[in-house]
């Protein structure tokens, strides 16, 4: 079990029995192969110590408290030990001598190494070969130890004696948080742990130990003391990234990877405590095979294991499978801890089924003149309703030359909604036959094609309805001169009945006549005037008067058609021009005697309007007081010939248009002569002084008549 390697210098000493006795260990360095476990009371090796004076009061101390050296020099294990570290130190002391021996524990692949490699390993162990006063070998402590505490876990040795010397320990876990986890016996160097350790919280403690005198002054050190917490299998594997959902296309080849399951174990990843193995515990549903999938025990990859034919979404009990996945540590051994998660696998649809009409021929009936949906065409498709492999696209491939029909897909039911978009005419065609094709939004897979069931015929019957008569033309237009005599004929309307097969009669009536100017003969449709047509009427817009007429057939019930008549009215000179303004004011001392600019307007149209002719009525008296000057076709200016006294004056002015014959209108312009002071016009007294040449003449004439 154990291999001993001796340096050449040791072998030379062993052969020279007659050499002088050298106090101490006869061999100071040992190399042993690490076993799977040191068992209780197992002999590890034998150490030879000789102080050359009888070894009186010989005592041995071992750096690992799980080992001891008996008086005969046998190094034995005190209990079962799986982790002893990479080295053990044995300190021997008698009345006359003391010495230190080192035992290096090698892995199996290191046991045949050359001496220089072994010496190199010693350096890698962090154990310098120079002489040291303090020897602090690494300490290994299992996590989750149970009370009682404190518990001895290691020992620090000093090769130069301990009289008057104390050990002092420091670092995280001693005087740094978490404080008080470890402590050292300052006299004999025993290292103890005071509580249960958790490797997942802290895996390593890097401490320092030093030797101090009674005054606390450092004598040796500090020397590093590494304490490693040995992992125990105290954490179950956990699936942290859920929910776990995978997709695989139906018909996929055997061995297609669906998804990967990955669990986490907080234990030491370098040990079997975190070595995970995966397994499928349960599959739901179990058809068509209870083993539809396989999981790679090491990687966690889930793959399909059934043939593509069994992976048929349309024949499955459900396109969704749920797998209960177990992750077990300890490499899957029975003693391993387990964690579970559910993997949901969805079988995705591909377009491997063409849509098919539920019947070859559909019937529909529609009234003529009506638009809208007339029939819903039903199809069946075994593909997934949530995909384009199921959604239908309809098209009319024959029987629709006038584009009177359209078909659209109902997104909820997938039915084809056939609609009339242009009203049908029974008298033209009472029957229509359409050929409809249905396809999917997504293309079919290469080995599937649309068959005869993907087309259907729709027979449409058009029902006759009593349609209203139709005016020809509509709207109707005529031009007439305004003021034509009452009873004049405007025009004769013409309406026909589309129901040519019913031989119905038509009567006419006035529907809307805003000004009440028209009448219509109910039998022959002659429209005449009942009043004078006035182009200037508020019912006339842009010289056009609009009226509506009805044509009513003799059906049961009767149907009505509406016709619109636009009468364009030509203008005649039937409106006299008007003058504005009719009031003007002027100061009695005004220097500018241009009193006012007058304008004229006429409701008629050109040429019955301007240019206008402006004239003053004949002035009587010894002298003329004003005159009027034409400015342009529509305006003239009144000018005083002299300043007048404060009073009101009425000036008769006549305006004549350019019509044939022309029309004249005489209007009195009221002129107020006011007193003006400091930019203020006072016309208050003018009302009492009302002077009008016309009124004076009339008054004199009246007095003259009474005298006779």
UniProtKB/TrEMBL annotation:
InterPro entries per the UniProt record, alphabetical: Cadherin (IPR039808), Cadherin-like_dom (IPR002126), Cadherin-like_sf (IPR015919), Cadherin_CS (IPR020894), Cadherin_pro_dom (IPR014868)
Signal sequence, renumbered to the chain: 1-16
Pfam families: Cadherin, Cadherin_pro
GO BP annotations, alphabetical order: adherens junction organization; calcium-dependent cell-cell adhesion via plasma membrane cell adhesion molecules; cell migration; cell morphogenesis; cell-cell adhesion mediated by cadherin; cell-cell junction assembly; homophilic cell adhesion via plasma membrane adhesion molecules
GO cellular component, one term: catenin complex
Compartmental location: Cell membrane; Cytoplasm
Residue span(s) of domain Cadherin: 165-239, 240-357, 358-471, 472-579, 578-689
Protein name: Cadherin-13
């Amino acid at each position: 079990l154990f291999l001993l390697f001796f340096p050449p210098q040791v072998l030379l000493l062993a052969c020279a029995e007659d050499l002088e006795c050298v106090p101490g260990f006869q061999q100071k360095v040992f190399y042993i192969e690490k076993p799977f476990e040191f068992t209780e009371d197992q002999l590890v090796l034998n150490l030879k110590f000789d102080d050359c004076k009888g070894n009186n009061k010989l005592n041995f101390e071992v750096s690992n408290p799980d080992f001891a050296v008996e008086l005969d020099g046998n190094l034995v294990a005190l209990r079962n030990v799986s982790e002893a570290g990479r080295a053990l130190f044995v300190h021997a002391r008698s009345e006359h001598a003391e010495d230190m021996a080192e035992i290096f524990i090698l892995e199996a692949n290191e046991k045949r190494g050359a001496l220089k490699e072994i010496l190199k390993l010693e350096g890698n162990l962090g154990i310098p070969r120079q002489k040291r006063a303090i020897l602090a070998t690494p300490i290994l402590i299992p996590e989750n130890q149970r009370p009682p505490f404190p518990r001895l876990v290691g020992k620090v040795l000093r090769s130069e004696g301990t009289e008057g010397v104390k050990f002092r320990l420091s670092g995280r876990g001693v005087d740094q948080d978490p404080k008080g986890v470890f402590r050292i016996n300052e006299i004999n160097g025993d290292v103890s742990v005071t509580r249960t350790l958790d490797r997942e919280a802290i895996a390593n403690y890097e401490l320092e130990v030093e030797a101090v005198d009674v005054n606390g002054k450092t004598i040796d050190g500090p020397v590093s003391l590494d304490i490693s917490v040995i992992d125990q299998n105290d954490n179950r594997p956990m699936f942290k990234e859920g929910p776990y959902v995978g997709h695989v296309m139906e018909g996929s080849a055997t061995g297609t990877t669906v998804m990967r399951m990955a669990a986490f174990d907080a234990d030491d990843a370098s040990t079997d405590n975190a070595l995970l193995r995966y397994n499928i515990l349960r599959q739901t549903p179990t058809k068509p095979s209870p083993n539809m999938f396989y999981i790679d025990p090491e990687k966690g990859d889930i793959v399909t294991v059934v043939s593509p034919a069994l992976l048929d979404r349309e024949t499955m009990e459900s396109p969704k499978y749920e797998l209960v996945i177990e992750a077990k540590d300890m490499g899957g051994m029975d003693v391993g801890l387990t964690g579970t998660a559910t993997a949901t696998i969805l079988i995705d649809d591909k377009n491997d089924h063409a849509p098919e009409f539920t019947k070859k021929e559909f019937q529909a009936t529609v009234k003529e003149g009506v638009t809208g949906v007339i029939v819903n065409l039903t199809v069946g498709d075994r593909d997934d309703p949530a995909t384009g492999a199921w959604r239908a696209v309809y098209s009319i491939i024959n029987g629709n030359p006038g584009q009177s029909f359209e078909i659209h897909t109902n997104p909820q039911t997938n039915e084809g909604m056939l609609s009339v978009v242009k009203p049908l005419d029974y008298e033209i065609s009472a029957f229509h036959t359409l050929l409809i094709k249905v396809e999917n939004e997504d293309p079919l897979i290469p080995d599937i094609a649309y068959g005869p069931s993907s087309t259907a015929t729709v027979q449409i019957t058009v029902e006759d309805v009593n349609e209203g008569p139709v005016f020809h033309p509509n709207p109707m237009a005529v031009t007439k001169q305004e003021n034509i005599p009452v009873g004049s004929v405007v025009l004769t309307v013409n309406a026909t009945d589309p129901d040519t097969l019913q031989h119905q009669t038509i009567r006419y009536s006035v529907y809307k006549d805003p000004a009440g100017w028209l009448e219509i003969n109910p039998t022959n449709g002659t429209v005449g005037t009942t009043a004078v047509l006035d182009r200037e009427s508020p019912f006339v817009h842009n010289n056009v008067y609009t009226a509506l007429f009805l044509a009513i057939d003799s059906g049961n019930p009767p149907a009505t058609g509406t016709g619109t008549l636009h009468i364009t009215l030509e203008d005649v000179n039937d409106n006299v021009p008007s003058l504005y303004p009719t009031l003007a004011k002027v100061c009695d001392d005004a220097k500018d005697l241009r009193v006012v600019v007058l304008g004229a307007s006429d409701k008629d149209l050109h040429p019955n309007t301007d240019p206008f002719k402006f004239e003053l009525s004949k002035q009587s008296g010894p002298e003329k007081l004003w005159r009027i000057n034409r400015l342009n076709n529509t305006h003239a200016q009144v000018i005083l010939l002299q300043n007048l006294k404060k009073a009101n004056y009425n000036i008769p002015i006549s305006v004549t248009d350019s019509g044939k014959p022309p029309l004249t209108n005489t209007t009195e312009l009221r002129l107020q002569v006011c007193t003006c002071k400091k930019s203020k016009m006072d016309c208050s007294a003018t009302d009492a002084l009302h002077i009008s040449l016309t009124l004076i003449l009339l008054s004199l004439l009246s007095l003259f008549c009474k005298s006779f």
